[in-house]
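quick one: phosphoenolpyruvate bound model?
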Amino acid sequence: MARKFFVGGNFKMNGSISSITEIVENLNKAQLDPNVETVIAPPALYLLLVREKAKKEIGVAAQNVYDKPNGAFTGEISVQHLKDSGIDWTILGHSERRTILGESDEVVAAKTKYATENGVSVIWCCGESLEQREAGQTLDVIAKQLAALKAKVSDWSKIVIAYEPIWAIGTGKVATTEQAQEVHASIRDWLVKNVSQSVADDTRILYGGSVSEKNCTELSKQNDIDGFLVGGASLKPAFVDIINCKL
Ligand code: PEP
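yep, here:
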Protein backbone atom coordinates (compact mmCIF):
# COMPACT_ATOMS: atom_id res chain seq x y z
CA MET A 1 0.00 0.00 0.00
CA ALA A 2 1.42 3.38 -0.99
CA ARG A 3 1.79 5.70 1.97
CA LYS A 4 -0.27 8.86 1.43
CA PHE A 5 1.77 11.94 2.31
CA PHE A 6 0.43 13.47 5.53
CA VAL A 7 0.72 17.02 6.85
CA GLY A 8 -0.50 17.83 10.34
CA GLY A 9 -0.78 21.29 11.83
CA ASN A 10 -0.39 21.55 15.61
CA PHE A 11 -1.75 24.91 16.73
CA LYS A 12 -0.76 24.13 20.35
CA MET A 13 -2.37 26.55 22.87
CA ASN A 14 -2.56 29.40 20.35
CA GLY A 15 -5.11 31.39 18.43
CA SER A 16 -8.53 32.89 19.03
CA ILE A 17 -11.94 32.40 17.45
CA SER A 18 -11.14 35.05 14.87
CA SER A 19 -7.56 34.00 14.04
CA ILE A 20 -8.44 30.30 13.83
CA THR A 21 -11.47 31.08 11.66
CA GLU A 22 -9.14 33.00 9.35
CA ILE A 23 -6.65 30.10 9.15
CA VAL A 24 -9.45 27.66 8.31
CA GLU A 25 -10.95 30.00 5.72
CA ASN A 26 -7.51 30.33 4.06
CA LEU A 27 -7.17 26.55 3.94
CA ASN A 28 -10.70 26.18 2.57
CA LYS A 29 -9.93 28.65 -0.23
CA ALA A 30 -6.56 27.13 -1.12
CA GLN A 31 -6.00 24.48 -3.74
CA LEU A 32 -4.57 21.69 -1.57
CA ASP A 33 -2.72 18.76 -3.14
CA PRO A 34 -5.33 15.95 -3.20
CA ASN A 35 -2.53 13.43 -2.70
CA VAL A 36 -1.83 14.82 0.74
CA GLU A 37 -3.85 14.06 3.87
CA THR A 38 -4.15 17.28 5.86
CA VAL A 39 -5.14 17.28 9.54
CA ILE A 40 -5.21 20.33 11.80
CA ALA A 41 -5.14 20.26 15.60
CA PRO A 42 -6.61 23.40 17.18
CA PRO A 43 -6.92 23.89 20.96
CA ALA A 44 -9.70 21.73 22.45
CA LEU A 45 -12.13 24.60 22.90
CA TYR A 46 -12.05 25.31 19.15
CA LEU A 47 -12.36 21.74 17.86
CA LEU A 48 -16.06 21.99 17.08
CA LEU A 49 -15.68 25.41 15.48
CA VAL A 50 -12.94 24.07 13.22
CA ARG A 51 -14.84 20.88 12.38
CA GLU A 52 -17.87 22.96 11.40
CA LYS A 53 -15.92 25.44 9.30
CA ALA A 54 -13.22 23.31 7.63
CA LYS A 55 -13.94 21.65 4.30
CA LYS A 56 -14.46 17.90 4.68
CA GLU A 57 -11.11 17.02 3.02
CA ILE A 58 -9.36 18.52 6.04
CA GLY A 59 -9.18 16.28 9.10
CA VAL A 60 -9.34 17.67 12.62
CA ALA A 61 -7.34 16.42 15.61
CA ALA A 62 -7.37 17.00 19.34
CA GLN A 63 -3.97 17.53 20.99
CA ASN A 64 -4.61 15.06 23.81
CA VAL A 65 -7.18 12.55 25.11
CA TYR A 66 -7.71 10.52 28.26
CA ASP A 67 -7.53 6.73 28.29
CA LYS A 68 -10.82 6.03 30.08
CA PRO A 69 -14.49 6.03 29.07
CA ASN A 70 -16.62 9.02 30.06
CA GLY A 71 -16.88 9.57 33.80
CA ALA A 72 -15.39 11.36 36.76
CA PHE A 73 -12.25 12.74 35.08
CA THR A 74 -12.55 16.49 35.50
CA GLY A 75 -10.87 18.49 32.77
CA GLU A 76 -9.87 15.58 30.53
CA ILE A 77 -10.73 15.18 26.84
CA SER A 78 -12.97 12.22 26.02
CA VAL A 79 -12.42 10.00 22.99
CA GLN A 80 -16.19 9.44 22.89
CA HIS A 81 -16.81 13.20 22.84
CA LEU A 82 -14.41 13.53 19.93
CA LYS A 83 -16.24 10.83 17.97
CA ASP A 84 -19.58 12.48 18.82
CA SER A 85 -18.22 15.76 17.44
CA GLY A 86 -16.87 14.32 14.19
CA ILE A 87 -13.23 14.57 15.31
CA ASP A 88 -11.35 11.53 14.02
CA TRP A 89 -7.79 12.27 15.13
CA THR A 90 -5.70 13.16 18.13
CA ILE A 91 -2.05 13.99 18.68
CA LEU A 92 -0.55 11.99 21.57
CA GLY A 93 2.84 11.99 23.24
CA HIS A 94 3.90 15.42 22.04
CA SER A 95 7.18 16.28 23.79
CA GLU A 96 5.53 19.27 25.47
CA ARG A 97 3.09 16.89 27.18
CA ARG A 98 5.87 14.43 27.99
CA THR A 99 8.17 17.04 29.49
CA ILE A 100 5.81 19.71 30.91
CA LEU A 101 2.90 17.46 31.93
CA GLY A 102 5.06 14.47 32.84
CA GLU A 103 3.44 11.89 30.55
CA SER A 104 5.49 8.71 30.52
CA ASP A 105 5.98 6.35 27.58
CA GLU A 106 3.46 4.01 29.25
CA VAL A 107 0.82 6.70 29.75
CA VAL A 108 1.15 7.79 26.12
CA ALA A 109 0.88 4.15 24.99
CA ALA A 110 -2.25 3.59 27.11
CA LYS A 111 -3.89 6.68 25.62
CA THR A 112 -2.94 5.55 22.13
CA LYS A 113 -4.45 2.12 22.74
CA TYR A 114 -7.68 3.59 24.08
CA ALA A 115 -8.06 6.11 21.25
CA THR A 116 -7.34 3.66 18.44
CA GLU A 117 -9.59 0.97 19.91
CA ASN A 118 -12.40 3.50 20.11
CA GLY A 119 -12.17 4.85 16.59
CA VAL A 120 -9.85 7.85 16.90
CA SER A 121 -6.62 7.79 14.89
CA VAL A 122 -3.42 8.96 16.55
CA ILE A 123 -0.46 11.09 15.54
CA TRP A 124 1.95 9.48 18.00
CA CYS A 125 5.04 11.60 18.72
CA CYS A 126 8.49 10.47 19.72
CA GLY A 127 11.93 12.06 19.78
CA GLU A 128 15.08 12.75 21.73
CA SER A 129 16.37 15.74 23.67
CA LEU A 130 19.55 17.56 22.69
CA GLU A 131 21.35 15.97 25.62
CA GLN A 132 20.29 12.50 24.49
CA ARG A 133 21.36 13.19 20.90
CA GLU A 134 24.75 14.46 22.02
CA ALA A 135 25.18 11.36 24.17
CA GLY A 136 24.52 9.17 21.11
CA GLN A 137 21.26 7.85 22.61
CA THR A 138 18.80 8.97 19.91
CA LEU A 139 17.92 5.55 18.51
CA ASP A 140 17.75 3.94 21.96
CA VAL A 141 15.36 6.60 23.26
CA ILE A 142 13.07 6.14 20.29
CA ALA A 143 13.25 2.34 20.47
CA LYS A 144 12.20 2.55 24.13
CA GLN A 145 9.25 4.81 23.27
CA LEU A 146 8.25 2.43 20.45
CA ALA A 147 8.58 -0.63 22.70
CA ALA A 148 6.17 0.91 25.24
CA LEU A 149 3.72 1.54 22.40
CA LYS A 150 4.04 -1.97 21.04
CA ALA A 151 3.40 -3.45 24.48
CA LYS A 152 -0.11 -1.93 24.45
CA VAL A 153 -1.17 -1.51 20.82
CA SER A 154 -2.09 -4.19 18.32
CA ASP A 155 -3.82 -2.22 15.54
CA TRP A 156 -1.22 -0.01 13.88
CA SER A 157 -3.49 1.03 11.00
CA LYS A 158 -4.79 3.99 13.02
CA ILE A 159 -1.33 5.28 14.00
CA VAL A 160 0.86 7.82 12.26
CA ILE A 161 4.29 8.21 13.84
CA ALA A 162 5.79 11.69 14.18
CA TYR A 163 9.52 11.88 14.80
CA GLU A 164 10.08 15.20 16.54
CA PRO A 165 13.56 15.85 17.91
CA ILE A 166 12.89 18.04 20.94
CA TRP A 167 15.83 20.30 20.12
CA ALA A 168 14.22 21.17 16.78
CA ILE A 169 10.74 22.02 18.08
CA GLY A 170 10.00 25.73 17.96
CA THR A 171 13.71 26.55 17.85
CA GLY A 172 14.19 27.25 14.14
CA LYS A 173 16.87 24.54 14.27
CA VAL A 174 15.65 21.95 11.76
CA ALA A 175 17.22 18.49 11.60
CA THR A 176 19.28 18.03 8.46
CA THR A 177 17.70 15.82 5.80
CA GLU A 178 20.35 13.18 6.65
CA GLN A 179 19.62 13.32 10.39
CA ALA A 180 15.88 13.03 9.81
CA GLN A 181 16.15 10.27 7.19
CA GLU A 182 18.50 8.27 9.43
CA VAL A 183 16.03 8.24 12.31
CA HIS A 184 13.03 7.61 10.04
CA ALA A 185 14.78 4.64 8.44
CA SER A 186 15.64 3.27 11.85
CA ILE A 187 12.03 3.61 13.02
CA ARG A 188 10.90 1.71 9.93
CA ASP A 189 13.55 -0.92 10.56
CA TRP A 190 12.36 -1.23 14.18
CA LEU A 191 8.82 -1.83 12.88
CA VAL A 192 10.07 -4.55 10.49
CA LYS A 193 11.90 -6.34 13.28
CA ASN A 194 9.42 -5.86 16.12
CA VAL A 195 5.99 -5.61 14.50
CA SER A 196 5.80 -6.74 10.86
CA GLN A 197 6.97 -5.94 7.35
CA SER A 198 3.48 -4.83 6.34
CA VAL A 199 3.12 -2.43 9.30
CA ALA A 200 6.57 -1.05 8.47
CA ASP A 201 5.57 -0.60 4.83
CA ASP A 202 2.22 1.01 5.58
CA THR A 203 2.92 3.26 8.58
CA ARG A 204 3.49 6.91 7.82
CA ILE A 205 6.46 8.47 9.60
CA LEU A 206 6.29 12.27 9.81
CA TYR A 207 9.08 14.66 10.62
CA GLY A 208 8.38 17.54 13.00
CA GLY A 209 10.65 20.32 14.23
CA SER A 210 10.83 23.80 12.68
CA VAL A 211 9.40 22.68 9.35
CA SER A 212 8.81 25.68 7.11
CA GLU A 213 7.97 26.46 3.50
CA LYS A 214 11.74 26.83 2.97
CA ASN A 215 12.93 23.41 4.17
CA CYS A 216 9.91 21.17 3.47
CA THR A 217 10.66 20.29 -0.16
CA GLU A 218 14.11 18.86 0.55
CA LEU A 219 12.87 16.91 3.57
CA SER A 220 9.90 15.55 1.61
CA LYS A 221 12.23 13.93 -0.93
CA GLN A 222 13.70 11.52 1.64
CA ASN A 223 12.59 7.90 1.23
CA ASP A 224 11.25 7.45 4.73
CA ILE A 225 9.74 10.89 5.32
CA ASP A 226 6.01 10.52 4.70
CA GLY A 227 4.95 13.96 5.80
CA PHE A 228 5.26 16.57 8.52
CA LEU A 229 3.88 17.63 11.85
CA VAL A 230 4.09 21.41 11.79
CA GLY A 231 3.80 23.71 14.80
CA GLY A 232 4.52 27.41 14.38
CA ALA A 233 4.25 27.48 10.59
CA SER A 234 0.79 25.87 10.67
CA LEU A 235 -0.56 29.18 12.02
CA LYS A 236 0.71 31.07 8.98
CA PRO A 237 -0.49 31.28 5.36
CA ALA A 238 2.73 29.44 4.34
CA PHE A 239 1.21 26.26 5.80
CA VAL A 240 -0.45 25.84 2.40
CA ASP A 241 3.01 25.76 0.76
CA ILE A 242 4.07 23.01 3.16
CA ILE A 243 0.96 20.95 2.36
CA ASN A 244 1.70 21.46 -1.34
CA CYS A 245 5.46 20.79 -1.07
CA LYS A 246 5.27 17.83 -3.45
CA LEU A 247 3.65 19.81 -6.30
C1 PEP B 1 5.35 20.74 17.03
O1 PEP B 1 4.98 21.38 18.00
O2 PEP B 1 4.87 19.61 16.82
C2 PEP B 1 6.36 21.33 16.16
C3 PEP B 1 6.98 20.56 15.32
O3 PEP B 1 6.60 22.68 16.32
P1 PEP B 1 7.46 23.63 15.34
O4 PEP B 1 7.06 23.28 13.92
O5 PEP B 1 7.04 25.01 15.72
O6 PEP B 1 8.89 23.33 15.60
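The longest helix spans residues 177-194.
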